[in-house]
Structure formats: C-alpha cells, structure tokens
Amino acid sequence: MIARLQTRLVCLLIACVMVPSNTLAAGPVGRGVPVVRDAEIEGLVAEYTQPILKAAGLSRSGVEVILVNSPEFNAFVSGRRIFINTGTIVGSETPNELVGVIAHEIGHLAGGHQLRLREQMEQAQRIALIAGLLGAGVAVAGAATGSSNAARAGSGLAVGGGTAALRGLQAYQRSEETTADRSALVYLEKAGQSGKGLIQSFEGLERANLLSGVSPRRYITSHPAPRDRIVRLQDLARQSPYYDRKDDPALQLRHDLARAKIAAYGEGAGAVRRMFSKDSRGLAATYGEAISAHLSGSPAIALQKIDALIAKDPKSPWFHEIRGEILMEAGKAKEAAVAFTRAAKLDPTKSGLLQASIGQAMVTGGDADDMKNAIAIIKKGLQSDPSNASGYRFLAMAYGRIGDDASAELAMAEAHWQAGALLDARIFAARAQMKLKPGSPQWLQAQDIISTKSSSK
Fold first, then answer.
1. Which of these, 72, 64, 16, 10, lies nearest to 42 by C-alpha position?
2. Is the pTM of this model over 0.70?
C-alpha cells in the first residue's frame, strides 16, 4: 500500500508538470511531436531567431528550431531545441510578435532553466515521497489504534503533501517565466527590436483566455497570468529606443505569406479569407487561395492564381515551389522538376528540402536515364538537411529504379530512422547489410543504425 501510494503521488507530479512540454520522441526529433517541414517557413523563422541568439550569446551553440503542427499558440524548449507551434505563427499578426515569443524561449535556454527545473522536480518528488510515507504512517497507526480520524488525517497528509510539492514547483516555474520575459526584452533591445510584440502576444493570450472562460487561478498554474506579465513588462519595454520601431513592409509580407500557407494547409480557403478580409486581393490572400485550390483538387485554378503571383514577383522561390507541387499533383512531374529547380536557384537559404523536391519529381516522372542525376541531386539536399525522411524515401526509389537494391534498403533504413520508426529502420539496415560488403562505408552505416540507441539531443 505504501509503495503504491508513493508511486501514485510521484506519477501525478510528473504528469502535471512534465508531459506537456518535454515528451520527446525516440527518434531524432520526438515521439508524439507532429513536426512540420517547410523551406519557406523554416527560413523565415531562422531569420527571426538568429539575431536574438546572437544577442543572448548563443549564436554558435547549435540551437535548432522545430516547427510543430498544432493550432495552439505555444512554444517551448527542450535540450538545444526551440519548438514553435504553427498556431503561434498564425496567431502572430506581425513579425515582431513572433520574434518576442522566440526571444522568451531563448531566455529559457540562456538561463539554463531546464537544468534547474529538473533539479526542482527532483526536490518536489522528494517532498511528495516524504509526505506519502508520513501520511501512510499516520494511517497505519490510526488503523492499529482504531482511530478513523487518524487514518483520514494520514490520507489528507499524503495528498496535501503532494499538492504542496506541485504548487511549490509551479511557483518556481512562474518565477522562471518572469525571468525569461525580462531576458527577452534585453535580447530584443540588443538586436534592435521592439519589445512591443512580446506584450502584444500576452494581450492576445489574455483575450483568448477571456473568450474561452479560462480562470486565472495563479496558485495552480505554471505561468503567470497574461495581465500580470503585461503590467510588469510595459514600462520596461517602453524604455527601449526601439519600442516604436515598425517591421519592414517586405518582412511583413513574407510573414503574411507564411501565415496564409499555414492557414490554407490547416483549415482551407475559409480561414485564408477570414485572415485577410481587409486585403482580399493582396499577395498573401491570393497565395493562400492558390494553395487551397491545389489542396481541393482544382489544379487549373491553382495554377492560374500562382502564375499571377509569379508574374508580380518572379523572384520568389516559394511561388515556384508551390507551382511545382501543383504540377506534381496534376501528374506533370517533368514540369514540376523545372519549377522546383527554379525555386532552388532563387532560394537564399539553399534549403535541402527543395533539392529533395527536384529529385522527387525526377524519380516520379523521369526516365531511367535520369535516375543517376536524381540520386546526385537528392543526396546533395540530404547533405544540408540529413533529417529529411521523405528525401531518403525518394532516394530509395531512385536506387531501386537502377537496380541497386542494397543502397535502396539502406536509404529506406535512414528514412525510417529519421521518422522515428526505429524497429523498421533496423530491419531495413539488416537487409541492406546482407547485400553489402562487410566493412564497407555503407555496411558500417547500416551497422550504426542497427546498434545505435535512440537519442533526443
């Protein structure tokens, strides 16, 4: 009974505090974390992030930003990774709002809050454990003496001790949130950015809470109430010489294009129209409508809209990328390869995702003679973006087309590994090894997959 009580209290503590933000996957990114890969949005968020990392002294620390497919306004850190929900991008009307959120998360990283949080959790678990032991002891004594009041007191002590530990831990988390808020303002000023966007994010959260009927029970929450954060930060933010600085119009347009893309993929044309109701004929609205038409199975309409956008801005790599996706869906793989190639040439970030898209189009619609070229292009993309699971799948298809079964099996092993399907990865790696020369570089690559345990950086 005592052991079961201890376990229940500790598990309750962990479930309440750890699961929402730290359940990472067995694979390279995380189990249960629906990751989004998109060259346009990744490049934009990286552009937002780098100046803040530099201001925090973390520009060379290998921090990685991961996009999470979730409509909720949320972001969190784990290890050297910042996870940003797509809903946070959609919910940030300006670049500065999203930069403020990123600055807050970098505040957690720079402050080493994760390490200290683990230490606080261990302390809270010890408190809960001791409370469980004491409560169980009182209950046992009450049962021995026939005192039901003592038995009830023991149960109350056990549960109350666990609750006190949880409240103490959440109070600690609230203090770390406040510290991260203040650090964010420091980094924003160093980077020449306004702190207004961070405050606007909290104002948006406050409105959302009021609309949803959320009660600000501060004693049982791990974050300060939005209104408290606004009051604390408003005067500090106004002291910055950059407080009234506006986002560059070109950057605002790129931000709106990213929001339109997320809205179109997530909720469709209706969401795009609502988002850009004040500028229904603008580039962002048309971009979202083109993607929505593509997703709804209307390639002719989608092409008409995206071609109109390309006519207005022929140097946008992302318009050409979407054109390639539309053509792929319409069964015009060779034309799609041309569009993806154009996008890759225009892309200032040199994203490996676009290189993989070129290879995908060539594999899907190309002749056998094109496969070696497709393999070279996909491998080039994977060199700069080795976590692209779909890239490995198309690499496997290309190898299969030229009859290189061993390399195809190995590419599929890598695809499964990057997707977090570790058992399938080991199966394909073992199959590849049977066809490869023992001790060769590919054989050793397969062996690494078979023998290496999962890691979550």
1. 64
2. yes
